[in-house]
UniProtKB/TrEMBL annotation:
Residues the record marks as active site: K207
Transmembrane segments: none
Any one GO BP annotation for this protein: polysaccharide biosynthetic process
Record protein name field: DegT/DnrJ/EryC1/StrS family aminotransferase
Organism field: Neolewinella lacunae
């Protein structure tokens, strides 16, 4: 059947109801036979926990990241929690975290009776910088959690320098940036998550490398830390039924690992598709008054877990409603600064109650549909809908 055309002979725009923030179904259909077989193989093998699929995914992810050790676990939040548990911190120790991030990055700090110290971020890249972190360091600071927000690396070299000078651990929250690469000052290119002492990532379905359920992983190059992380994730046991420390139970199941084994070889292609969509958005949106397309972090690639705009003048919610009416879904990541969350009110974390860039971003950011299956007709429709708001 011929593509329907409008009166000017242009391809007709897709029906707005088709547009999704994330399209996991089309991505699945492109590898259906492979995934179905991999899942069936696990079911037929009966090796649901710690089966061969988990071990092969672990090895493949180590190779992909160039990481010494990968410890798969149940989700990205657990990865962060296990990382902090393995560092031997004491209650009241301070951990520095950006205030503009997903709650998990700070939640695990508070959960472990440590003190989250929230700091501001760069209003153009949305990432925390060494200069945001430095003034927050005290004698009680033990660790920093840089979050590679929306899919590009924080500028890690100055953060690592600061950490070295103050003897701090660095735990990278790489949940949104798996697939991104950071170039160190000596020219060495590293996968995000492999620059600090520990990297943590998530395989939540909508992440760039998403499972069909929950999953996560921790990585480190430090042999001793790897042993501790493995032990903590497995009930604190080094030998079965001998528990050396209080740990938790956090596993990646074999079915999820089998699915991830199908998707990991495709991750770079998925990221490239996201980068193409981002380039289209950039090219067609950068001239609009009061609208800022996302700035690229120096020394990092961007894998666009999110494509996030800023719009000034208290117009963000109006733009969101305008797009909603046109059938274009958008999301606000994140509408509330962590220091303003009810959960942190009246806690040590509330020592900070206002950070100007974070405050600005909670009011100005809006994330557009972004996934590995974006096609040009959909992009053209979304861009047209946005441009009509400014007309
Ligand atoms: C998704 C995410 C997490 C948590 O991952 P889960 O697998 O959902 O627990 C942590 N930090 C950031 C920045 C995230 O985006």
């Amino acid at each position: 059947m011929a593509t329907p055309t409008n009166s000017q002979g242009h391809a007709q725009l897709p029906p707005p109801t088709n547009i999704q923030m994330v399209d996991l179904k089309t991505q699945y259909l492109a590898m259906q036979d492979e995934v179905d077989q991999a899942v069936l193989d696990v079911i037929r093998s009966g090796a649901f926990i710690n089966g061969p699929a988990v071990r092969s995914f672990q090895a493949s992810l180590e190779a992909y990241l160039g990481a010494g050790h990968v410890i798969p676990c149940a989700n990205g939040t657990d990865a962060l929690q296990i990382a902090l548990m393995a560092l031997g911190l004491e209650p009241g120790d301070e951990v520095i975290v950006p205030a503009f991030t997903y709650v998990a990055s700070a939640e695990v700090i508070a959960l472990l009776q440590l003190s989250p110290v929230m700091v501001d971020v760069d209003p153009r890249t949305f990432n925390v910088r060494a200069e945001d972190i430095a003034p927050a360091i005290t004698a009680k600071t033990k660790a920093i959690i840089p979050v590679h927000l929306y899919g590009q690396s924080c500028d890690m070299a100055p953060i690592m320098e600061l950490a070295r000078a103050h003897n701090l651990y660095v735990v990278e929250d790489n949940a949104q940036a798996i697939g991104a690469r950071y170039t160190l000052p000596d020219g060495e290119v590293r996968a995000t998550g492999t620059i600090g002492h520990i990297g943590c990532t998530s395989f939540y379905p909508s992440k760039n490398l998403g499972a069909y359920g929950d999953g996560g992983a921790i990585n480190t190059d430090d042999e001793a830390l790897a042993k501790t992380l493995t032990m903590v994730a497995n009930h604190g046991q080094s030998r079965r039924y001998y528990h050396d420390v209080v740990g938790c139970n956090s596993r990646l199941d074999s079915i999820q690992a089998a699915i991830l084994n199908c998707k990991l070889p495709r991750l770079d292609a998925y990221c490239a598709r996201r980068q193409q969509a981002a380039a289209y958005y950039d090219a067609h949106l950068q001239d609009l008054p009061g609208l800022l397309t996302p700035a690229r972090q120096a020394n990092s690639t961007h894998v666009f877990h999110q494509y996030t705009l800023r719009i000034d003048g208290d117009r963000r919610d109006a733009l969101q409603q305008h797009l909603q009416a046109a059938g274009v879904p958008t999301m606000i990541y994140y509408p509330v600064a962590l220091y303003d969350q009810e959960a942190f009110r009246g806690t040590a974390a509330n020592a900070v109650t206002f950070l100007p860039n974070t405050d600005l971003l909670t009011r100005e950011v809006i994330s557009l549909p972004m996934h590995s299956e974006m096609d040009e007709d959909t992009l053209a429709y979304i861009v047209g809908a946005i441009r009509s708001f400014f007309a």
